[in-house]
Amino acid sequence: MSRFPNYAVFKLEMMMTDSTDSVNAFISDIKERLIPIARFELDALSKLKHASLGSMNTTDAAGNEVEKITRFHTWDFSFYKNLTKSRDHSFNEKKFSEYFSQERSLAGMMSTFSRLFGLQFIEITSDQFSEFGPEHAMTWHPEVRVFSV
């Protein structure tokens, strides 16, 4: 009797764990497919940054106009990505988050991880913190919740 329930499961295991070379080839293939997409997105965000900075006058301490630095930095990504979401897609993150309360999202995430990985989450309440010893800081804020996995 085979340990595989069907051929698809057998084939998937063989393709994924055949060797480190096959895993590296798989990762390289994904990388090659994603690089053009990433470049396209970065180019669009860079153009947005350049357009937004183009209207600003930059001067040094002496009052001389200075050439603007338009290089796209790592810390620019989140700002311009969010700007694109709100401007081009009329996406309002605050309104969106109203549909996903923290409590519901946390419960859904824990339920998913429980089913996928067989984990069990148990909340540790503030009256149980003393069991971990006085030198062990459990939280940095009263609203923080602690779970044991």
Q: Helices and strands in order, then pairings?
A:
Elements: H1 7-17, H2 20-54, H3 76-89, H4 93-97, H5 102-117, E1 122-124, E2 146-148
Overall description:
The chain is mainly alpha-helical. It folds into two domains: 1-56 and 70-99, no CATH class; 101-149, no CATH class. The two termini are 36 Å apart. Helices cover 54% and strands 4% of the residues. The longest helix is centred in the first third of the chain and has 35 residues, at 20-54. A two-stranded antiparallel ribbon has the order 1-2.
Compute the number of helices: 5
Principal-axis shape equals extended
Taken as a percent bin, the fraction of beta residues is under 5%
Which ranges are low-confidence, i.e. pLDDT below 50, for 5 or more consecutive residues? none
Spatial strand order of the main sheet? 1-2
Helix-strand pattern, N to C? HHHHHEE
Mean pLDDT, all residues: 83
Considering DSSP H and I runs of 4 or more, what fraction of the residues is helical? 40-55%
Please state the structural category.
Answer: mainly alpha
Oligomer: single chain
Cα end-to-end separation: 36 Å
Measured on Cα atoms, how large is the radius of gyration?
Answer: 25 Å
Provide a quick synopsis of the model.
54% of the residues lie in helices and 4% in strands. With 149 residues, it is mainly α.
